[in-house]
Design brief:
heterodimer; A: mainly alpha; Helicase, Ruva Protein, domain 3; B: alpha+beta; Tick-borne Encephalitis virus Glycoprotein, domain 1; four-stranded antiparallel sheet; 17 helices
Chain lengths: 148, 625
């Protein structure tokens, strides 16, 4: 074999390998039985993508566990859903798209960050209100207590 | 026979506690002050009896007496010796007995230290503590007796939960309980003060050492719990904002506020109503924490006894502990000296602001923790509140506290001279900017602006301590505050700089993470007394060519038929390498998860410094009196 053909082979390998890896990943995602395996060794295209996927999976609650997010739980459903998140992120889906998909299937319960809507007004605005209340009470107390 | 003696001791201890409350109370109502003296003897008696009881339970554990239900459920003849001892508090009944033990320990300690001191007041403190001991003693005896027998006697025990078979479990629950229960001391001092004819006695001075001691233990308990979760649960997280963790954090925050408030109350007779209310609520939150763990009302990985009746009893005790002192407070608050300030720029105001911020933080965490439960109770909907919410709310409040800490050394009681202050603050921030920017240059891997700003703020917490002048008198505060800064840096950098990689690895394969190269050498099989394990041998090579061997395991515990992943960790002061062994994939291959945890050890180091600060503060008080 000529030396140049070795170069061609190496270049071809670099081109073909990522493509084949891509195919492998898609094919493996189709089969449910392999999901627990593929999620643990899922490889992302970039570190940013990985960080985003992990960040998302941390914000989502495993629907059948006690109180664990998709990253922490090792139950089969958590792994399936983690894989789903990974796949959606690597397909280029945005964060809201992933979250919408999860809530449409499992309800708002999977969201660790509740949406800002009428029934969570007390939750989200409570701390702000408390801060203002204590600030106001404290200010009144302090100004009333100053002895000249 | 031994368990029966243990049960008898517990009955005796509870009886001592009941009498320890009843006799002096009778003395107070019939104006026979000499009956006060019984508080001391009966506190010692209760302590002796309950200690005997818990020791006999531990002894029965070492004898593998599986005729005792609790032992049969939480031990096994193959369990290592130290875990048999730790199993005493590894389940519901035993940990309640430990609660009673801690209560009697604190009341005996308070009784002993104050044996010749303010007997009229201290006997009231002991009455409150005896009432609590009696309530929890009765609860243990009637609803969760750890000595109840089992027939037919099983040949073998069900073993301790594998997750609890760990050195962290030997120390975490006792420290946490001693901390929780320790605040019963602060609670008792406050309630006793509220019943005194003259409320303006120096009770904050007497209460402070006990509050400090409880705070030190709770700090240790919370930090150990976090450490245990980090290295035992196997996914490398150290804080999950889980309801049970929040339950231990809540009394810690109010306890921290109480510490500061008591200083103002002791030195300046200021913020006395704050000190009273914080004493009451800190212990109430400790009780709430116990209630949350016991009742199974919140879903959590920690909740272990799902039994509504037990929860109900605890809820009743909790309600009494809130309602009675608050009623007393309403009746007495008119007699409390009003706050008098000379200037807006004074330490009194600083502590008032700090108390407010910490209380807002407490209430916000409380709100987030119980919000889903309220929804569930009213059947509205199922929602979850987790880390994203708590971080959004908690981080700004914590940063606000840090800002207060940077000016704390320069603000004096009554009033602060403003000239000179500007120069000092300028110096603090210039030094902080230099240190902080240097730290960001070295460690801010992702060039995040937020990380740099917080690093500068943390540096300012340290430089202000030095610019303010490090003196022996301020040593405790300096050490504790630097501890907070160290912990904050740890939390910040572990959140922003950590990286991880998961890979399918088999003997001979290699993975890279940052400048680390990880070689998978071989897989080994181990057989231990009560588990079998697969163990991976991995060589981690850093950029300089140093090799560390790490051995993560996958353990199988046959008695409970459970698999546990045992991570392998290599620690240095800048980072941990944290490797877990996952599922077996293929013939020789395993899914291996390698995590690089930046600055994680700063968390524990900072917590230790906070504890040391607390201990120094107790020591300083001891010297002065």
């Amino acid at each position: 074999m000529k030396l140049s053909s070795v170069y061609v082979f190496i270049v071809a390998l670099f081109v073909v390998y990522p493509l084949s890896a891509q195919n492998q990943r898609e094919s493996s995602s189709l089969s449910d039985t392999e999901s627990t395996q593929s999620v643990e060794i899922f490889s992302f295209d970039s570190i940013e993508q990985q960080n985003r996927a992990i960040h998302l999976a941390r914000q989502l609650r495993c629907p059948q566990c006690q109180n664990q997010n998709l990253m922490e739980s090792n139950s089969p459903i958590a792994k399936d859903l983690r894989l789903k998140v990974y796949l959606m992120v690597s397909e280029g889906k945005t964060d809201p798209q992933v979250i919408d998909f999860m809530t449409s299937r499992f309800g708002d319960m999977v969201l660790y960050k509740p949406k800002f809507e009428p029934r969570t007004y007390v939750l989200w605005l409570g701390p702000v209100f408390l801060m203002l209340l204590f600030g106001w009470l404290g200010y009144r107390k302090v100004t009333a207590s100053i002895v000249d | 026979m031994i368990p029966e003696i243990g049960l008898f001791s517990l009955i005796l201890g509870t009886l001592c506690a009941i009498l320890g409350a009843a006799i002096p109370l009778f003395g107070i109502f019939t104006k026979r002050p000499h009956l006060n003296r019984y508080s001391w003897a009966l506190s010692y008696g209760a302590f002796g009896a309950v200690t005997t009881s818990i020791c006999l339970l531990a002894y029965s554990f070492t004898l593998d007496d599986f005729s005792v239900t609790y032992i049969a459920q939480h031990s096994n003849s193959q369990l290592p010796f130290f875990f048999k001892i730790a199993a005493v508090w590894g389940g519901h009944e035993g940990s309640l007995l430990f609660w009673v033990f801690s209560l009697s320990l604190w009341s005996a300690a308070i009784a002993f230290v104050n044996r010749n001191h303010n007997q009229a007041f201290i006997s009231r403190v002991l009455i409150v503590l005896s009432l609590l001991t009696a309530a929890f003693g009765l609860f243990t005896l009637l609803a969760s007796n750890p000595f109840s027998r089992l027939f037919p006697v099983p040949m073998q025990g069900r073993d301790l939960h594998p997750m609890l078979q760990d050195v962290g479990l030997i120390f975490h629950p006792p420290l946490l309980y001693l901390g929780y229960v320790g605040f019963s001391g602060a609670f008792a001092f406050a309630v006793a003060a509220l019943t005194m004819p003259d409320i303006n006695i120096p009770w904050p001075q007497w209460s402070r050492a006990w509050t400090l001691a409880a705070w030190v233990m709770l700090t240790g308990g919370v930090a150990l719990g976090s450490w245990w979760a980090y290295y035992e649960l196997g996914w490398g997280g150290w804080w999950f904002w889980d309801p049970v963790e929040n339950a231990s954090l809540l009394p810690w925050i109010t306890g921290t506020a109480l510490l500061h408030s008591l200083i103002a109350s002791e030195k300046r007779q200021a913020l006395i109503n704050w000190s009273l209310l914080l004493s009451i609520f800190t212990f109430s939150l400790s009780l709430l924490g116990t209630f949350v763990v016991r009742s199974g009302i919140l879903t959590s990985v920690h909740a272990f006894a799902v039994d509504p009746t037990r929860g109900l009893v605890l809820l009743v005790i909790l309600a009494i502990c809130v309602v009675v002192p608050l009623t007393l407070f309403m009746l007495q608050s008119g007699k409390i000296k009003p706050l008098r300030l000379q200037s807006l720029v004074s330490r009194e105001v600083l502590f008032l602001v700090l108390n407010s911020v910490l209380v807002v933080a407490t209430l916000s965490v409380l709100l987030g923790t119980f919000y889903p439960m309220i929804f569930q109770v009213f059947n509205l909907a199922s929602i979850s509140v987790g880390a994203p919410f708590f971080n959004t709310v908690f981080v700004p409040l914590a940063l606000l506290c840090f800002v207060l800490m940077t000016i704390a050394p320069f603000i004096h009681w009554q009033k602060t001279k403003l000239e000179g202050l500007k120069v000092k603050l300028l110096l603090v921030w210039i030094l902080a900017a230099v240190v902080g920017l240097l730290a960001s240059y070295l460690f801010n891997d992702n060039s995040s602006v937020f990380v740099s700003l917080v690093l500068i703020l943390c540096a300012a917490m340290v430089t202000s301590a030095f610019v303010g002048g490090v003196s022996i008198g301020h040593l405790a505060m300096t050490v504790a505050h630097i501890g907070v800064a160290v912990t904050a840096v740890g939390i910040l950098l572990v959140s922003y700089n950590s990286t991880e990689v998961s890979a399918k690895m088999s003997p001979g394969s290699t993975v890279e993470l940052g400048d680390l190269t990880i070689h998978y050498r071989a897989t080994e099989w181990l057989v231990a007394a009560n588990y079998t394990a697969e163990q991976a041998l991995l060589d981690v090579v850093d950029a300089d060519g140093n090799i560390v061997q790490l051995k993560p395991q996958k353990r199988h515990y046959p008695v409970r038929v459970m698999n546990m992943s045992e991570p392998a960790i290599h620690s240095t002061w800048l980072r941990d390498i944290y490797i877990t062994m996952g599922e077996k994939i293929g013939r020789n291959a395993y899914a291996i998860r390698i995590q690089h945890k930046a600055f994680i050890n700063w968390l524990w180091a900072g917590s230790l410094m906070m504890m040391l600060g607390g201990i120094l503060a107790i020591g300083q008080r001891y010297e002065r009196t």
